[in-house]
Design brief:
Distance between the termini: 56 Å
Order of helices and strands: HHHHEEHEHEHEEHHHEHEE
Mean pLDDT: 96
Low-confidence stretches: none
Strand content: 15-25%
CATH topology of the largest domain: Rossmann fold
Largest sheet: 7 strands, mixed
Structural class: alpha/beta
Number of strands: 9
CATH superfamily of the largest domain: Vaccinia Virus protein VP39
Strand order of the largest sheet: 5-4-3-6-7-9-8
């Protein structure tokens, strides 16, 4: 296509946008899609298609993205949740051995990690930080939408500044894209997603270092830090963690494409 979107993806995008305009679920769309289009539909559909042609991400056009099987509100103020970030949830749930754990989500964005963990661990007390007040507004709405607003405390701060809670578990999907890689990103990412949530300095490791450094004094003995990192950064992460005495890299989890993606780090007991 002229917009640079391949045909199979364009077809799927067209269906998603049509259902968004119509307000239909997929079952109704399949059943009634051959009905004559109204002028109102055509006008609104043309508008959202024009946005997609400009390579605006589907999730920003529809205002939603599924994560862990539930829908989250997303806006251009937050990073769009990715499937690989669910690895953080999987690893976290395997390691929570306290019925009332304290969990801190660093750089919460849409709140997807914090909200899911609050839902999955009803006794948990969750703190979610972000430097962006606009992102925190989105995260608060998502917490309310999924019934955990009373158990997630949102704090506007950089990383863990001012957070004194002793945490059993710290989770984070920090910015890790090297700033020098920006020109090679897809337009959907480079031109629309918030740079503050994407770029981790020239080498992409700046935010990873800060998360590890900030987590060490806040984790209880035996506590866990579970952190996402970028493609090809596993060797650097493996070298980074031992720089902080008391922390051990227990595991690096690979995603479904066998790309090293998630670091599981433990504080000495």
């Amino acid at each position: 296509m002229k917009a640079g979107i391949n045909a199979s993806l364009a077809s799927l995008d067209a269906e998603v946008l049509a259902r968004k305009v119509l307000g239909w679920d997929r079952t109704r769309f399949i059943t009634e899609r051959h009905e004559p289009a109204t002028s109102s539909f055509l006008l609104n559909f043309e508008h959202v298609v024009a946005r997609r042609v400009r390579r605006e991400p589907i999730s920003y056009i529809t205002g939603a993205r599924e994560f862990w099987g539930i829908d989250f509100e997303v806006t251009p103020d937050v990073l769009i949740p990715r499937p690989e970030t669910e690895l953080i949830i999987e690893e976290a749930l395997e390691r929570i051995d306290d019925s009332r754990p304290v969990i801190i989500d660093v750089g919460t964005g849409s709140g997807c990690i914090a909200v899911v963990l609050a839902r999955e661990v009803p006794g948990a007390s969750v703190v979610a930080t972000d430097v962006s007040s606009s992102a925190l507004d989105v995260a608060r709405r998502n917490a309310a939408r999924h019934g955990v607003a009373d158990r997630v405390r949102f704090v506007e701060t950089s990383f863990l500044d001012g957070i004194d809670d002793a945490a059993n578990l710290i989770v984070s999907n920090p910015p890790y894209v090297p700033s020098v890689s920006a020109p090679g990103l897809t337009p959907e990412v480079r031109d629309y997603e918030p740079g503050v949530a994407l770029y981790g300095g020239e080498d992409g490791l700046e935010s990873l270092r800060l998360v590890v450094q900030a987590s060490l004094p806040r984790l209880v003995p035996g506590g866990w830090l579970i952190m996402e990192f970028g493609c090809g950064q596993d060797d650097q992460v493996a070298k980074l963690v031992p720089e902080y005495p008391g922390l051990t890299l227990e595991k690096i989890r690979h995603d479904l494409q066998d790309i090293p993606r998630t670091a599981v780090i433990r504080k000495s007991a």
